[in-house]
Amino acid sequence: MVTIYDIAKATGHSAPTVSKALNGQGSLSVKTRKLIVDTAKEMGYEPNITARTLTTKKSNLIGVIYDDTGMNLGFSHPLFSVVLNRFRDQVENAGYDIIFLSRFYKMSYYSHARYRSVDGVIIINPATNDLGEFKEFVDENIPRVSTNSIINGICTIITDNEKGGYEAAEYFIKKGHKRIAFLSAPIKEISSAPQERLEGFKRALKDNHITFDEDLFIESRTWQSEGAYEAFKTLYKRTQDFTAVFCATDTMAFGLYRAAEELGLKIPQDISVIGFDDDFSDNFISPHLTSFHQDAIQIADLAADMMIQQIAEIPVPDFIRCDAKLIERLSVKNLNQN
What we know:
The chain contains twelve helices and twelve strands. It is an alpha/beta fold. The strands form two sheets. Strands 2-1-3-4-5-11 form a six-stranded parallel beta sheet, sandwiched between helices. Helix 7 links the parallel strand 3 and strand 4. The longest helix has 16 residues.
């Protein structure tokens, strides 16, 4: 195994100088640093991460919590997959690697983070409804960010879901719709998105002097299209007195499309629909779905920036909200033109 002492001998520099060059430290000249780094590569040097962790108290590892037990979309999720890839690119450019943390052998996320000696943790989608589990990250002051769930004491970067819900209802209203249903994802789960989108939706109705009708609200038992398919059929059996539906996610809108087809309903002639996520799968349905595009790149960039700042012991805000953009397609009928 090649050591820094071998590199020192080959370059004529001291071992401490070699160590500084390989770790990006010290005020070395560009020429010296390049010589040492190039020589290390030529000699096949591989850094001893364990030894470096013991010496510097840093592992240069960022833990990732991504356990998709509720949505069952895994790494194909339209938002989280982009967030994860972009976040990885950004922290790798800053000199960090990522490692996934799980709750195996009854070990908590926090215990796994300590076991792996990570320098920080990004919480993308945890497999638990117990937000209290993350209190240890706050108490022990481990750098951490969340991109899905609002957790007290943890810097959270998420879409402005309430604003999105407001804009969805307002868009329908401007198109002449007054009887608008809301097809929700499960609300009592760790993600706050469905509840926030509902609150924004209800506020827009109120601001436009439209009473929120509980009969036009239906909550799916799952985040999947199958759950939405069943929920829409239940809603339609309960009442047919609506012209539009706001779906909490695109995946749920796809379930509505299938149910509508079986019920003999045409979109948007009979039912107008808006989704949320701007899922690429929209390319395979007709008519193309009007939906909200979440800025996953901005969310990931901010998450990486907030992570690096915390590692550098720079204070960060509790919340950062990112706007979602409504993408108009063909699933909403303009009733004003009738």
